[in-house]
């Protein structure tokens, strides 16, 4: 059975889509885990651009068959990227698309888990539906933020709104530079959640990804790509061995 990994954030523009897409590329293409990237940003999805794909079908096309989803329905709806990585693209129509209901999300994820090892969710920012459903259903929750005061405050409020039990599997501090006003240690202390990864600011690596749809994890020269490859390895160890048995020091 596959594992659902949700990439979340309180504030927009912190790097969820870039991270979710590159995690999927590293796990699917690099580690040969059968992976599907699910883009939940209605009208606003950009995962297709970051993978240089032109989807013709979207998860909204499954609307009438959520109750009886088969692997064939899924294979007709995904856009193939490489043998071990598919995209379930977001519908382009901002107005006409209905937000996917929690029951349907649950049915969709159950069907995907029978076909894929990893189901990686790129979500819209905030806690409006369908993010609440994704938060409830994802087995692994990664919370992305940038190290600045407005994002820290929004993230704190987001975390406070979640149930008291296990809130996330860790924070991902993105666009970090040694000149940042807030250190990863301060972020961890302020938010009371573990830091799962720190990703550097890397304009050049991101530029190629956004302009040509070449994931930065495939670029040897990208320091962001390298950090996300390491993060993917850590994520796979977490899935395979549980939280007690992985350590950041195991990174290549
Ligand atoms: N580590 C980084 N270094 C440099 N630029 C980055 C980095 N991470 C993300 N960016 C850039 O920041 C912008 C926002 O990234 P992205 O679209 O992934 O954020 P998002 O959280 O998905 O936004 P939204 O909430 O709108 O969906 C993009 O132009 C992206 O290329
Ligand atoms: Mg996004």
Bound molecules: adenosine-5'-triphosphate, magnesium ion
Class by helix and strand content? alpha/beta
Approximately how much helix is present in the residues? 25-40%
Our estimate of the beta-strand percent is 15-25%
Rounded mean pLDDT is 94
Order of helices and strands: EHEHHEEHEHEHEHEHH
Question: How would you describe this structure in keywords?
Answer:
252 residues; alpha/beta; Rossmann fold; 8-stranded mixed β-sheet; 38% helix; binds adenosine-5'-triphosphate; binds magnesium ion
What does this structure look like?
With 252 residues, the protein is α/β, with parallel strands linked by helices. It has one domain: P-loop containing nucleotide triphosphate hydrolases (Rossmann fold, 3-Layer(aba) Sandwich), CATH 3.40.50.300. Helix content is 38%, strand content 17%. The protein has 9 helices and 8 strands. It has an 8-stranded mixed beta sheet with strand order 3-4-2-5-1-6-7-8, sandwiched between helices. β3 and β4 form a beta hairpin. The protein is globular. The model has no long low-confidence stretch (mean pLDDT 94). Bound molecules: adenosine-5'-triphosphate and magnesium ion (MG). The site of adenosine-5'-triphosphate has 19 residues, from α1, β7 and α8.
Reconstruct the topology from this structure.
Blueprint: E1 3-8, H1 16-30, E2 35-39, H2 47-50, H3 71-77, E3 79-82, E4 85-88, H4 102-115, E5 118-122, H5 131-137, E6 140-145, H6 149-161, E7 170-176, H7 184-191, E8 195-200, H8 203-212, H9 223-241
Parallel strand pairs: 1-5, 1-6, 2-4, 2-5, 6-7, 7-8
Antiparallel strand pairs: 3-4
Helix pairs in contact: 1-9, 4-5
Bound molecules: adenosine-5'-triphosphate and magnesium ion.
């Amino acid at each position: 059975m596959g594992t659902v990994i949700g990439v979340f954030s309180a504030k927009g523009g912190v790097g969820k889509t870039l991270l979710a897409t590159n995690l999927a590329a590293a796990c699917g293409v690099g580690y040969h885990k059968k992976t599907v990237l699910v883009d939940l940003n209605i009208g606003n999805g950009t995962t297709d651009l970051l993978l240089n794909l032109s989807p013709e079908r979207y998860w909204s096309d499954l609307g009438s068959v959520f109750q009886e989803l088969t692997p064939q329905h899924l294979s007709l709806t995904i856009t193939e990227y490489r043998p071990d990585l598919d995209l379930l693209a977001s519908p382009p129509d901002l107005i006409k698309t209905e937000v996917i209901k929690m029951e349907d999300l649950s049915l969709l994820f159950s069907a995907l888990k029978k076909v894929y090892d990893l189901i990686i969710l790129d979500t819209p920012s905030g806690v409006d539906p369908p993010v609440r459903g994704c938060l409830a259903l994802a087995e692994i929750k990664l919370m992305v933020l940038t190290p600045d005061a407005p994002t820290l405050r929004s993230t704190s409020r987001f975390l406070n709104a979640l149930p008291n039990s296990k809130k996330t599997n860790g924070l991902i501090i993105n666009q970090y530079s040694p000149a940042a006003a807030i250190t990863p240690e301060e972020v961890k202390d302020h938010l009371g959640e573990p830091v799962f990864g720190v990703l550097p600011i890397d304009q050049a690596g991101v530029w190629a990804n956004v302009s040509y749809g070449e994931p930065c994890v495939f670029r040897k020269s990208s320091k962001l790509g390298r950090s996300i490859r390491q993060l993917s390895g850590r994520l796979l160890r977490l899935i395979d061995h549980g939280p007690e048995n992985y350590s950041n020091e195991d990174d290549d």
